[in-house]
Write a structure and sequence with these properties.
The protein is mostly helical and 138 residues long. Helix content is 72%, strand content 9%. The protein has one domain: Winged helix-like DNA-binding domain superfamily/Winged helix DNA-binding domain (Arc Repressor Mutant, subunit A), CATH 1.10.10.10.
Length: 138
């Protein structure tokens, strides 16, 4: 079994490389990284209440409100009333936001294909199992 220090360094190195890749990809489309993360969440989960989105982004509702205001100005999202709860407002992707989500998701798929191409099916499944378990720990 690898030593904990080796695992620690490997995780940190992977995070840094992925973060650097993410910043470079986002920079090319002219949207902030925080906006792309919000677009990803909305693209995956669909329309959400502001509070839900803030929780998933690990920010306060106030911070999320400012971010959504900027995203509305950039035509990435829109606010709409909740269908059954008159007090709630949902945030959903616009057509432009949906296009950014689809393009960015395709880039993630390409990256995943690229970095796992040297793994056989058993190794890919083992990696998936490890990532699922690690994500549960958060």
């Amino acid at each position: 079994m690898p030593h904990l220090d080796q695992l620690n360094h490997a995780i940190i190195e992977f995070y840094e490389k992925l973060s650097s890749w993410e910043h470079s990809v986002v920079k090319e489309i002219g949207v902030t990284l925080a906006h792309v993360h919000a677009v990803e969440l909305l693209g995956i989960h669909g329309a959400m209440r502001m509070k839900e989105l803030a929780m998933k982004m690990s920010v306060t509702t106030g911070t999320m409100t400012v971010q959504v205001d900027n995203m509305v100005k950039a035509d990435l999202v829109r606010r709409r009333p909740h269908d059954t709860d008159r007090r709630s407002i949902l945030v959903e992707l616009t057509e432009k936001g949906q296009q950014i989500y689809q393009n960015h998701d395709a880039l993630h798929h390409d990256l995943t294909q690229q970095i796992t191409s040297g793994l056989d099916t058993t190794q890919q499944q083992a990696l998936l199992n490890c990532l699922i378990q690690m994500n549960r720990e958060f």
